[in-house]
Design a protein that fits this description.
The protein is of the alpha/beta class and about 250 residues long. Helices cover about 55% and strands about 10% of the residues. It has two domains: about 120 residues, Response regulator (Rossmann fold), CATH 3.40.50.2300; about 110 residues, Methane Monooxygenase Hydroxylase, Chain G, domain 1, CATH 1.20.58. The protein has a five-stranded parallel sheet with strand order 2-1-3-4-5, with helices on both faces. Strand 4, helix 4 and strand 5 form a beta-alpha-beta unit. The longest helix is centred in the C-terminal third of the chain and has 28 residues. It starts with a strand and ends in a 10-residue tail after the last helix. The model has no long low-confidence stretch (mean pLDDT about 85).
């Protein structure tokens, strides 16, 4: 999950970027509100935005307003940063749903405490459950769980491919062929965020096609699960012991 820093002051942006990277957060920086919108389009995994209020072209409050109007970004938490400590700007930010506010110059300790708090509470529902918990819950061997994860990863990838086809030229809305299998897999593997999106669609019937808004949200959650599965696989490969060369007699 990435954090988008929106700040036209290079020094302030560099300090926040450095502090967050030292905390092992992935970051991307935008110098204006317009550039921030481009970054949001380019990076589907942005899970938090830290935005200055006073910026050229599109200011921080206008950026938040546009985010709240788009189904892909409306639920992304935002921290508003500004040297303008007046009640008017705080009130405007609050009206747009911004519950988090930091004064500039932003102090490292306050920044990290707030980011940790937001990403610990706003995203309490897991992207994917821990493998050990899954294995213990269902009594699965390592090999059995690996096969299940591989099958689910393939299903997720196929669904992403289907949903990302050019629906604007399709004669009918794109339907999720394996909705029941996806839902069952999300339950089994503890993919809580994806499950929420799937259940909302499933409530309308097995043949229901997602609306454009539902499609955007579902794609984002599917890609998060796809990345989580890939990360798990990579960690296993790194942790796997290598066989020592045979000893000569």
């Amino acid at each position: 999950m990435r954090i988008l820093i929106v700040e036209d002051n290079e020094i302030s942006a560099s300090i926040m970027d450095s502090n967050l990277r030292q905390r092992n957060y992935e970051t991307v920086v935008a110098r204006s509100g317009n550039e921030a919108l481009q970054q949001l389009e380019a990076h589907w995994d942005i899970g938090l935005v830290i935005a200055d209020i006073m910026m050229p072209e599109v200011d921080g409050l206008e950026l938040v307003r546009r985010m709240r109007e788009d189904s892909k970004w409306k639920d992304i938490p935002v921290i508003v940063c500004s040297s303008l400590a007046d009640a008017e700007h705080v009130a405007k930010a609050a009206q747009l749903g911004c519950r988090h506010y930091l004064l500039k110059p932003v102090e490292r300790v306050k920044l990290l405490m707030l980011v940790d708090k937001i990403l610990g509470s706003e995203n309490a529902t897991p992207v994917l459950s821990d493998k050990k918990k899954i294995a213990a819950k269902y009594g699965l061997s390592t090999e059995s769980l690996s096969r299940i994860l591989a099958a689910f990863a393939q299903l997720v990838s196929e669904t992403i491919a289907a949903l990302t086809q050019n629906s604007s030229t399709a004669s009918e809305p794109v339907r999720i062929v394996n909705l029941a299998r996806l839902t069952e897999g999300a339950v089994t593997l503890g993919a809580g965020r994806l499950l929420t999106s799937l259940q909302a669609l499933q409530a309308r019937g097995a043949d229901a096609a997602p609306t454009p808004e539902e499609r955007d949200v579902l794609l984002k959650e599917l890609k998060l699960v796809e990345r989580a599965l890939a990360d798990q696989s990579q960690k296993e490969r790194i942790a796997a012991p290598t066989n020592p060369p045979p000893q000569a007699n």
